[in-house]
Specification:
The structure holds two protein chains of two kinds. Chain A is an all-alpha fold. Chain A has a single domain, classed as Cytochrome Bc1 Complex, Chain D, domain 2 (Orthogonal Bundle). Chain A has six helices and no strands. The longest helix of chain B is centred in the first third of the chain and has 16 residues. Classes of the chains: A mainly alpha, B mainly alpha. Chains A and B meet through helix 3 of A and strand 3 of B.
Chain lengths: 145, 248
């Protein structure tokens, strides 16, 4: 009979995995259990070293001159998808489209020749992903045609 | 042999299916003008330095490159590299060959990759193929490395998990932030890159793309780069050499 503290340790270890549980095309539960912060999320999305989103996407960022056009505009993302759907697309969109060029922001496995500075690390932390999600959910208006 | 050739042809297909264009075509008119005009092309400074070095004696026997290579004999050479090096039984790129002549034939101190001297000599030799079509040799001993290069080009790598092909075959002409993604034809190397404020080799460019996807780059001179170059040169066959080119 394992001691209660070992059981507790197991439960804690199992937590992140349970939090990432995929239901259909979504991860309904928050990765952290704490709501994200949309202002921080916006800063992450616009940051070319952290979120990298504007390398490929455009969006409602009038102050950002160089936005990519490899991917759909982020404008309106919060009305096209539920928070859970967006969570899966950020955590590991390749579960939905294995050929996608969009990086999996919260996946460590299955990568090849990762640079030493990035080994064993996800692109964004769970808290950063929740911040980005809080921001994406504020994007209700579609891009002007 | 036959199915190697077939495999190469198939691998090159996606690139050939679209009209091939040098990265030159995607540049702003001012940058194009800078490349076209030798008096404003900063790469010419390196090429001129290379011309001097070519004639400078080095090593114990006091021989220069020009002692062995007559005026004009370097024409077309850059268009057909990488080539097979019988001494090492491996493919060798142009910079590698220049460095090898320097140590093995002149007995002079080695020229490191990306050193000023090696870039200058590569620019000088490369310039003598300017305007000539890229013409990879039909040497079957290069096939294995070329196939390896094609595989490296198609392989996803780094924390961002992207392959060369995903950007350069699937999305050329699109914008990655402010940069137009070129088709990745190695037409102008070594070239002057505005971002570097210096001349740099193809291997430096490839390292940039690898670290960009947060992958561990190969060491300078690694056989993997030469394999990728072999593949890129066969994919670019027929396009004109632009050395020393200018890029943003």
């Amino acid at each position: 009979m394992p001691s209660p503290s070992i059981l507790l340790a197991f439960l804690l270890l199992a937590l992140p995995a349970a939090a990432q549980e995929v239901v259909e095309d979504a991860i309904p539960r928050s990765l952290t259990g704490t709501p994200g912060d949309a202002t921080r999320g916006r800063a992450i999305v616009a940051d070319r070293q952290r979120g990298l989103c504007l390398l490929c996407h455009s969006g409602p960022f009038p102050e950002e001159p160089f936005q990519g056009n490899l991917a759909p505009s982020l404008a309106g993302a919060g009305s096209r998808w539920t928070e859970g759907q967006l969570r899966l697309r950020l955590v590991d969109g390749k579960r939905l489209n294995p050929d996608s060029i969009m990086p999996s922001y919260h996946r460590r496995e299955g990568l090849h020749r990762v640079g030493p500075a990035f080994q064993g690390r996800t692109i964004l932390t769970a808290a950063e992903i929740e911040d980005v999600l809080a921001f994406l959910m504020t994007l209700r208006e579609e891009a002007a045609p | 042999m036959i199915h190697r050739a077939l495999m190469l042809a198939l691998l090159a297909l996606p690139a050939l299916a679209q009209e091939r264009r040098s990265g030159f075509e995607d540049m702003a008119p001012q940058t194009q003008a800078m490349q076209r005009d030798d008096t404003s092309n900063p790469g010419m400074l390196w090429a001129l330095e290379g011309e001097d070095l070519f004639r400078q004696p080095a090593g114990p026997a006091g021989q220069s490159c020009a002692s062995c290579h007559a005026e004009g004999s370097m024409q077309g050479v850059a268009a057909r590299y990488p080539a097979w090096d019988t001494a090492r039984q491996a493919p060798i790129d142009l910079a590698g060959r220049i460095a090898q002549c320097r140590t093995d034939r002149q007995g002079a101190p080695p020229l490191a990759r990306e050193s000023q001297g090696l870039l200058a000599l590569s620019a000088h030799v490369g310039q003598q193929s300017r305007g000539l079509p890229i013409a990879p040799p039909a040497d079957p001993r290069l096939d294995a490395a070329r196939v390896q290069g094609a595989a490296l080009y198609a392989e996803r790598r780094g924390q961002l998990d992207l392959s060369c092909a995903q950007c350069h075959d699937d999305h050329p002409g699109r914008r990655l932030a402010g940069s137009i993604i070129p088709q990745a034809h190695p037409t102008g190397y070594p070239l002057y890159r505005l971002e570097w404020q210096a001349l740099g080799s193809l291997q430096r460019r490839l390292r940039g793309c690898m670290t960009g996807v947060r992958a561990e780059p190969f060491a300078y001179g690694a056989p993997e780069y030469i394999a990728i170059e072999l593949f890129l040169m066969s994919r670019a066959a027929g396009l004109a050499v632009e050395t020393p080119a200018v890029r943003p």
